[in-house]
Amino acid sequence: MWKLNEETIRKIKSYPAETRDSEISKELGLHRQTVAKYRKDIADTLWKDEKKKLVLLEHYSPKDIQEMLNYIATNTKKEVNEVLSEPWHLKFALLSDTHFGAKQCARDELGEFYDRAKDKWVEAFVHCGDIVDGSSVYKWQQFEQDRVWFTEQLSDLKENYPDVWIPTYFIGWNHDEAYLKWNGVNICKAIETVRQDLINLGFYDARLKLNGIDINLHHWWWSLSYAKDYKMKKYLDSMPVENQPDIFALGHYHTALYDFHRWIHGFMPWAFLKENLLAKRFNLWNTIWWWVIEIDKNEKGQSKINMEFIKL
Questions:
Q1: CB atoms < 10 A from the CB of 165, how many?
Q2: Closest Cα to residue 113, out of 275, 306, 296, 270?
Q3: What pTM did the predictor assign?
Q4: Structural domain containing residue 14
Q5: Helix, strand or coil for residue 298?
Q6: How many structural domains does the chain have?
Q7: 4 contacts: CB under 8 Å, gap ≥ 6
Q8: Is 64 part of any domain?
Q9: Same-domain check for residues 73 and 55
């Protein structure tokens, strides 16, 4: 074996770990033992890392491992930063909790909302979670559904969710998560495959930047507090100043609210779900509004906002 120049060594080490030494030696015209010598450090490092992983996994039960896999799957969110038209100006429609699959899903009202928002030249729709109704989220849920299973709810959404050739950016939460939790399948990713206009941003929380306007989508848990704005303000209070969005949109509570706190425009979007037993149990009013928001921001980061807030 002879000493190789740095360029050849770099080429040898650039091959993926699973590539055989014999394949590399054939491509580069080198002896197999020469290739093996320079790849030994890589192989040793990979083996040590794999052994560490195996030792760690020995301490977890199959259930723990499945929960970790689910956690990883649900937290693979993506951040979107797009310029749709004029920089520092955005007109969009905000909604949440459409619950496709539920008997009380307000499909007609949702269709009207999309048509009227399109007529007002919105550039995007922003959805704060629970796009489908899921399964086994609460006891006796199946008796309040006309589409119970994964394929039925996915088909319902594919065929009946409004399509106005304008993108809808959405996150998933507890109802969307149900299929991942019980069956190991991610319906939010499945939605992307059947509808190109519905753009999945991951579960629970996402950052969406359109035309330079920063929107933080979030979906909460548990019931509404004694004051509608309490939980939203507590969340914004914990947010670092350097990470503050222009708009914070909080789903889950099936009610409508606007507040300006810490120089952030905070919204709770309504639900497109009529009254059902779950709403009665958790005191959810299921207010159906349509909301179009227009925001401008200057070079100092200061923003002004206009909104149309009309009940359907």
A1: 6
A2: 270
A3: 0.73
A4: 6-59
A5: coil
A6: 2
A7: 12, 30, 34, 38
A8: no
A9: no
